[in-house]
Specification:
The chain has 367 residues and is an alpha+beta fold. The protein contains eleven helices and twelve strands. 48% of the residues lie in helices and 23% in strands.
Length: 367
């Protein structure tokens, strides 16, 4: 009698132990996968009270696509045939939110070896999954930054050596014409121009690298105000070149003001510089709702300049990449533009055709 009493007490304790475990969802299923029992861990992880879920099929925890693919049935079948099935993936809570879960389904057998049901144990591994994904993103980011650093260092050293070579060459020529004042002044002028080119390259490198490390705050920025401020700085140049500019109503975005000012300054400056005719610039915008996921703002900057072959569209955003040597410049301006836009979680693209102008499209997330 005592043995029977101890067995009953042990069974009750075991049942209570399972019921009160909170870190794991422990569920008893019948042979069809319908829920017969539900512990506190299952309520905590999945969000259903026991009276809400008993009798329902465990497939309700799976994503619609997994249900369509028959994943719950496949797992039950595997557990029936092999005694056990495990799987890791997204599961659904009562409120419709998803969590990353690891599940093990074990077949229960009677004395004759017949399957009489299943136990299903689920562990919420969302935090681990997020940590792994962040670790993977960090590793990829470091790998990409190292690659960019190698390319940047190579190109930078190459471009910085050019004005140094010129300075040395003109110094040698100046020495050979030391008694010819006119020739000497000519070579000194070339030396000064090369030195200035080097200064501009160094400034460009600093500006480009600074964008990678600055930790700045974002504010609500009215692009109409930014563009107006940029244009006011080009008054003299516009008067000299007879520039025609048209600006439509622009949106307000979350941004770093000084970076956005630099962005439009570079784009407008290029539109004037790379133009052999009377420059015409048009700045406009289109805002589009993303079905309850916010707004995307498209800013279009178009000109009637000399343009370039579309095949080189990706190269124009590379540091020090210049498609023509007919105009002064460091080749960093558009690389800066790309970096600035990406700092704002946006993107920049370009369409161009020789002799028919260039159009830049900037995409910024709304708020």
């Amino acid at each position: 009698m005592k043995d029977n009493t101890d067995a009953i007490h042990n069974e009750i304790r075991f049942q209570r132990m399972i019921e009160q475990v909170e870190d794991y969802a422990i569920i008893l299923l019948n042979t069809e996968g319908n829920i017969l029992n539900w512990n506190k861990g299952a309520e905590k992880i999945k969000g259903y009270r026991e009276d809400e879920i008993l009798g329902k099929n465990f497939s309700v925890f799976y994503l619609p696509q997994d249900q369509q693919d028959g994943l719950p049935f496949k797992l039950i079948t595997e557990a029936r045939n092999n005694g056990r099935a495990s799987h890791e993936g997204f599961r659904l809570r009562k409120d419709g939110s998803a969590f990353w879960g690891y599940i093990v389904i074990t077949a229960l057998h009677d004395e004759l070896g017949q399957v009489i049901g299943f136990t299903k144990v689920t562990r919420d591994l969302t935090e681990r999954k997020l940590a792994e994904e962040q670790k993977d993103r960090d590793a990829k980011s470091i790998e990409m930054q190292n690659k960019q650093l190698e390319e940047f260092a190579y190109v930078t050293s190459h471009d910085l050596q050019e004005p140094i070579r010129k300075i040395r060459a003109f110094i040698d020529l100046a020495k050979s014409e030391i008694d010819d004042r006119e020739s000497l002044e000519f070579y000194l002028g070339k030396i000064d121009a090369s030195a200035e080119k080097m200064v501009q390259l160094i400034k460009g490198v600093l500006n480009y690298s600074r964008l990678s490390y600055e930790r700045t705050e974002f504010y609500e920025v009215d692009l109409n105000t930014v563009v107006a401020d940029v244009l006011s700085g080009f008054d003299v140049l516009f008067a000299e070149k007879n520039v025609i500019i048209e600006v439509s109503d622009l949106p307000v975005i979350k941004a770093v003001p000084v970076q956005i000012h630099q962005l439009f300054s570079n784009l407008i400056s290029n539109a004037v510089k790379f133009n052999l005719a009377r420059p015409q610039i048009k700045i406009s915008s289109i805002s589009k709702s993303l079905d309850g996921q916010g707004v995307i703002h498209s800013i279009i900057v178009a000109d009637n300049g000399m343009g370039f072959d579309q095949a080189y569209a990706d190269q124009v955003f590379e540091p020090f990449k210049r498609l023509t040597t007919s105009f002064n410049g460091t080749g960093i301006g558009l690389a800066l533009c790309k970096r600035i836009v990406e700092n704002h979680q946006g993107s920049i693209s370009v369409l161009s055709k020789p002799g028919q102008g260039t159009t830049f499209t900037l995409l910024f997330p709304g708020f």
